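User: Run a structure prediction on this.
Assistant: Running it now.
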Amino acid sequence: MKNQGIHFFSVRGRYFAYHIDSTACVELDSLASQWLPAVVEGATPPLPEALIGRYSPEAVDACAEQCCDLLARGPFSKSLPPYEHHQQQELLAATLHISHQCNLACRYCYADTGSFGKDRKLMKKEVVFKALDFVFAQARKGGELNIGFFGGEPILNYRGICEGVKYARNCAARFGNKVSFSLTSNATLLTEDIMKMLSSEKFSLIFSLDGPPEIHDRMRQTRSGAATQARVLQNVLDYQRQFGDEFTVRGTFTAITPEFSQQVVYLNEQGFKNVSVEPAQLDPSHPGAIVTPEQIAQIKEEYEHLAEIFLAWFDQGSYLHFFHFDDCLRRLLKPRPKYTECGAGGGFIAIIPDGRIFPCFEAVMEDRNCIGHIDSGFDPVKRAVFQRMYVGAKDTCRSCWLKHACGGGCHAFNIRYNGTIDKPYEPQCEFLRHRHMTSAWLLSEINARGKEAVERLQGYLGIRSAGKSGQ
């Protein structure tokens, strides 16, 4: 590849060309998989005579025409306007670390079992109110604003959540904003009254559940070492039965529990419609960290195995809900470049119990990430470090073919594991690239099943327009 901005890859005998800027992806047949790279490289003639001799003249002519059309008039011909990064000033979302306490002691917890390396305490009422005053004052007047509650285990400060919701409603009325709420919980403390409140306030919910007991209870225990899977599963099923399935169940896997396809299948078998199972982000010295080439290769194989399961379910008329495949498939069907992973430090912030401000809920672990205090406001210099970050500001990302589908990775992970915000965490990059390639293979398999299969997939993914797929 020279200057065409095209990346070529193959998965399980299928060949693909990926346009880096537009994120469009097309499948190539065996001839095109040799012809198009040669054209992009500027070879003249594109293929040796002996190789062309393996194909009929008609096939060679058709291939040449299609490749030229792809480059001259197709999705690979589109040049994007130059991207100009603007530093977001107005807040769109804020997470309150309502609790720096937790009733669990998960073996892979990066947050020091809920304290984030700080004092184990709950956010006081006056801090909740002052934090919300600060957030609404920094938000766009009349705009939408999401208030998240996080921990630790946020329900340990349920009273603070309720007071925060009521106060935020008042702030929204005063400032003319539309406010919404979100919460991440281990689900061990859910009661019927708590469930009713979460449902009535239309909370966006993430419940942590690692799958079957033999995996969940190995990793997610109480502080006294007791199992939690049965209680968590029952509580989440009760919520689903009474209030619907508009929530996400999130699992975590590690080097100790690498066969995560079991977790995904189990959570789907419970009837959950939004499932995410992700690698734990751990210090390389942690026994559960996935860092060696052998460990990374095993996880890649597991993604491919999960794609086979997805396809088997699809052929039977069912859907295997898995966020990372669903997201990649949407992007392949509806290509759209993105330039940053998130708005951490710009449109999105987190506030901890002592009133300090951090770029996001993940970045709270490191004190050096602090960008201000609700009493004194933002430190503009420290905030700008995060505001200015986008994929073009990271040297490693600029040379990565997936940069405009990824957006540059998690700022907090970069700092935690590499010591700098502009160097992505490589294991995460490896998984992102492999998930995208595996999803391309998965979509090609569904494409091979015909138009009706593609339309069924689009319906499942919530893509309204049948149109042409990205392949």
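Confidence is low (pLDDT under 50) at residues 466-470.
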